[in-house]
């Protein structure tokens, strides 16, 4: 089995409301000097082969209109 | 006109939608369609209702696009059948590629829930048959991920093809949607998605009954699968 990790993030230039909300909370918690916070997600999965991971990402894990994705694979 | 209202695990507005279908046509036998059903025979129009289909896991509407019922709905839409997606249903139709664009988290990140005004746009769609372009209608807004987005070239194409069906009235864009877009159609006009909730504006006690027109539209236009 292949161990894969898919990193999905909002496309550059699209307002990331979640990232903005996190960034907005930081000063109140005493974290100064942090900016451009963007929130994405990681999907970890095991697959018999990496052949169709790209297709899986385009069809389900990410929405290519609004998100970019990267696939990292580790042979077990 | 017999409507089929889809019901996914996590749908929550399907009964209001069914009620709206029955108000629009009291003599019809509109019914719920469970997400595992694939036989839409006898159904003249489809509603993909609001809610949180499959928990909205991953992205709103992302998982529902693969349900057996949605495969049948895609065929129904390709044959020209009228399909109406409301709120989560709009998200499902965008995710499944039946409508252009995507819905992002509201600019404010807040859930909004209030009555608001929509302006009917120029789209050529059976769902607009009861309205005049430029008419203002009052419909509840109720969502957290309703910010309509399309990349510049796609947005230009949507506008050029007159696929915008509704815009938020001036100053009332509640979520940061591009071009104040509240609802869009597919290229042929038989599929409509909108974020606001016409099914909640069909009863005299609701403050507005403007939503009924959307459910009456396809019958007025003589549309049907």
TL;DR of this structure?
With 76 residues, chain A is α+β, with helices and mostly antiparallel strands. In chain A, 24% of the residues lie in helices and 33% in strands. The relative contact order of chain A is 0.39.
Alpha-beta classification of chain B: alpha/beta
Number of domains of chain A: 1
CATH architecture annotation of chain B: 3-Layer(aba) Sandwich
Please write the CATH class name of chain A. Answer: Alpha Beta
Q: Identify the biggest protein-protein contact and residues per side.
A: A-B, 11 and 20 residues
Secondary structure: number of strands of chain B:
11
What does the largest sheet of chain A look like? Answer: 3 strands, antiparallel
Strand order of the largest sheet of chain A: 2-1-3
Structure overview:
- The complex is a heterodimer of chains A (76) and B (225).
- By secondary structure, chain A is of the alpha+beta class.
- Chain A has one domain: Phosphoribosylformylglycinamidine synthase subunit PurS (Mth169, Chain: A, 2-Layer Sandwich).
- Chain A contains 2 helices and 3 strands.
- Chain A has helices at 17-25, 53-61; strands at residues 2-10, 41-47, 67-75.
- A 3-stranded antiparallel β-sheet of chain A has the order 2-1-3, covered by helices on one side.
- Chain A starts with a strand and ends with a strand.
- Chain B is an alpha/beta fold.
- Chain B has a 9-stranded mixed β-sheet with strand order 2-1-3-4-11-10-9-6-7, sandwiched between helices. Chain B has a two-stranded antiparallel ribbon with strand order 5-8.
- In chain B, helix 1 crosses helix 5 (212-221).
- Chain B is globular and about 40 Å long.
């Amino acid at each position: 089995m292949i161990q894969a990790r898919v990193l999905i993030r909002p496309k550059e230039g699209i307002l990331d409301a979640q990232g903005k909300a996190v960034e907005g909370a930081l000063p109140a918690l005493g974290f100064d000097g942090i900016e451009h916070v963007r929130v994405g997600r990681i999907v970890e999965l095991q697959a018999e082969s990496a052949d169709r991971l790209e297709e899986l990402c385009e069809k389900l894990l990410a929405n290519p209109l609004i998100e970019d994705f990267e696939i990292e694979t580790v042979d077990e | 006109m017999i409507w089929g209202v889809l019901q996914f695990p996590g749908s929550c507005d399907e009964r209001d939608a069914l009620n709206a279908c029955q108000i629009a046509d009291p003599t019809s036998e509109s019914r719920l369609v469970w997400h595992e059903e694939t036989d839409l025979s006898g159904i003249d129009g489809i509603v993909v209702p609001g809610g949180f289909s499959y928990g909205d896991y991953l992205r709103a509407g992302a998982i529902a696009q693969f349900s057996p019922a949605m495969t049948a709905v895609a065929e129904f839409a390709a044959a020209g059948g009228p399909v109406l997606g409301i709120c989560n249903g709009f998200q499902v139709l965008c995710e499944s590629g039946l409508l252009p664009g995507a819905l992002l988290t509201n600019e404010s990140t807040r859930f909004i829930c209030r009555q608001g005004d929509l302006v009917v746009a120029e789209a050529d769609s059976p769902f607009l048959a009861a309205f005049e372009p430029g008419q203002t209608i009052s419909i509840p807004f109720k969502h957290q991920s309703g910010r309509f987005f399309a990349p510049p070239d796609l947005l230009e194409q949507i506008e050029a093809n007159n696929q915008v069906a509704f815009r938020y009235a001036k100053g009332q864009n509640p979520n940061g949607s591009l071009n104040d877009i509240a609802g869009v159609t597919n290229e042929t006009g038989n599929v409509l998605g909108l974020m606001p909730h016409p099914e909640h504006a069909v009863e005299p006690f609701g403050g507005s009954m403007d939503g009924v027109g959307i459910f009456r539209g396809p019958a007025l236009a003589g549309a049907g699968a």
